[in-house]
């Protein structure tokens, strides 16, 4: 029996979306869904929930929870990864509260910034352990990575020789969200998106062959005259000429222009939600007991296939019916010719039985490539730091992070990193 293994299956809502999607696919009916999580209660919850779904969807899949990771992975054909090392408490709290002592504020801190760097450093050893198991018990499996920081973690798995693609929601919803925001029609739209994760660019957007960007820019400029939830992205669109895929709360901390201790008015001017991610975590924790009853214990639970890429990728590989995705892959051969080849880029990819074939993009407009490179610099140094356990590389990654560097001196950056090393304790391997 073919197997799909879900690492981080205690993410019950996400497991429902991705594996619920898979249950609706004819070609996947004889698969085993192997669930693994270090949280035994959440693992049990997800198993119950998925078995309810299986019954109500009249699916023939097998749902099985595993308490041993290697057993869960053994013989897997596909692996879905959705983990968070350290959780909200203590990891997210640490990522936000210690930088605050240096007046360094963040919104999400799960990709870049000082929070993203340390999220990478504590997650990479876990990913390497996954890779070791995969090479031993399912070396030909495809690894579908949903875990942030997307670019770095996908890069690590590729370095380990694992067939990996990184998957992010932002590419899927970017175009429709923009058109909705500006009250533009969404029929017969052709678009082209490429860049890096959380900073990919809507390079082209046409309707029936007509370029929509002139009208988009006009409406976006008018919308900036009043408060709304996407002001950072519209400002980037105005100043750099293209719309960025990921949300304003994310992009506020990917650039040096928006969150600045010396310019506190920017927070209100651009409607920036500081500490947004901790707020979401707290709300999710508070709402989980009610949600648990609604999802886990609902005997009549059902599901409609979502837009998540996971099930469509697996279906395309199983049936050889091509499917197009926005995937995070290594920039081998210069898919984006003015970005480094050792970076992970986000480009259109075609999926079929032969695997994942990324699209050659060529050169990005130089200003977009330049913005991408400011983030890639930190990503590549973070990878080097994790592979060598060299503390100086962590310092360098932080010094080159656009937001951190714009706010703090070199000495404060080093001191902040040292404080974060101390606070993480055993969540990190020893650095020297």
Low-pLDDT sequence parts: none
Helix fraction, binned, reads 40-55%
Beta-strand content estimate: 15-25%
The order of strands across the largest sheet is 3-2-1-4-5-6
Tally of extended strands? 13
Question: What profile does the largest beta sheet have?
Answer: 6 strands, parallel
Structural class: alpha/beta
Alpha-carbon distance between the termini? 46 Å
What global shape is seen?
globular
- Quote the average pLDDT: 97
Task: Explain this structure.
This protein has helices at residues 12-23, 40-57, 69-73, 87-100, 113-137, 150-159, 169-181, 213-223, 231-240, 248-251, 265-269, 276-295, 309-319, 366-388, 391-400, 402-407, 410-424, and strands at residues 3-7, 32-36, 62-66, 78-81, 142-145, 163-166, 189-196, 199-207, 210-211, 243-244, 323-330, 344-352, 355-358. Among the domains are: 170-269, no CATH class; 366-427, no CATH class. 49% of the residues lie in helices and 16% in strands. The model has no long low-confidence stretch (mean pLDDT 97). Strand 8 (199-207) and strand 9 form a beta hairpin. The strands form 3 sheets. A 6-stranded parallel β-sheet has the order 3-2-1-4-5-6, sandwiched between helices. Strands 7, 8, 9 and 10 form a 4-stranded antiparallel β-sheet that branches. The chain is an alpha/beta fold.
């Amino acid at each position: 029996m073919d197997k799909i293994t879900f690492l981080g299956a205690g993410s019950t809502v996400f497991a429902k979306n991705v594996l619920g999607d898979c249950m609706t696919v004819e070609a996947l009916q004889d698969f085993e869904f192997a669930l693994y999580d270090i949280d035994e209660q959440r693992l049990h919850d997800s198993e119950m929930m998925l078995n309810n779904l299986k019954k109500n969807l009249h699916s023939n899949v097998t749902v099985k929870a595993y308490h041993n990771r290697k057993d869960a992975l053994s013989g897997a054909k596909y692996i879905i990864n959705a983990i968070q090392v350290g959780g909200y408490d203590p990891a997210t709290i640490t990522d936000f509260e210690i930088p605050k002592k240096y007046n360094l504020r963040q919104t999400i801190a799960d990709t870049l910034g000082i929070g993203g760097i340390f999220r990478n450093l504590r997650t990479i050893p876990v990913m390497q352990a996954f890779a070791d198991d995969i090479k031993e018990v399912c070396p030909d499996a495809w690894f579908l990575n949903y875990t942030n920081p997307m670019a770095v973690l996908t890069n690590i798995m590729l370095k380990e020789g694992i067939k990996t693609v990184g998957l992010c929601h932002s590419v899927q919803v970017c175009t429709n969200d923009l058109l909705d925001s500006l009250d533009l029609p969404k029929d017969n739209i052709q678009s082209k998106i490429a860049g890096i994760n959380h900073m990919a660019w809507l390079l082209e957007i046409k309707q029936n062959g007509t370029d929509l960007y002139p009208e988009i820019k006009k409406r976006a400029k008018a919308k900036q005259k009043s408060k709304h939830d996407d002001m950072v992205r519209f400002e980037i669109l105005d100043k750099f000429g293209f719309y960025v895929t990921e949300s304003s709360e994310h992009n506020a901390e990917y650039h040096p222009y928006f969150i600045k201790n010396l310019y506190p008015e920017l927070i209100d001017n651009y409607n920036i939600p500081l500490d947004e991610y901790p707020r979401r975590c707290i709300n999710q924790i508070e709402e989980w007991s009610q949600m648990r009853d609604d999802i886990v214990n609902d005997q009549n639970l059902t599901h409609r296939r979502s837009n998540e890429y996971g099930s469509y990728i697996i279906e395309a590989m199983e049936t050889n019916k091509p499917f197009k995705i926005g995937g995070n892959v290594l920039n081998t051969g210069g898919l984006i010719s003015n970005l480094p080849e050792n970076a992970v880029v986000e480009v259109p990819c075609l999926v079929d039985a032969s695997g994942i074939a990324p699209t050659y993009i060529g050169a990005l407009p130089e200003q977009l490539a330049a913005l991408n490179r400011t983030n890639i610099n930190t990503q590549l140094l973070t990878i080097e730091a994790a592979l060598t356990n060299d503390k100086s590389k962590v310092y360098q990654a932080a010094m080159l992070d656009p937001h951190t560097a714009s706010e703090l001196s070199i000495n404060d950056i080093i001191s902040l990193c040292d404080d974060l090393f101390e606070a993480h304790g055993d969540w990190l391997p020893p650095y020297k």
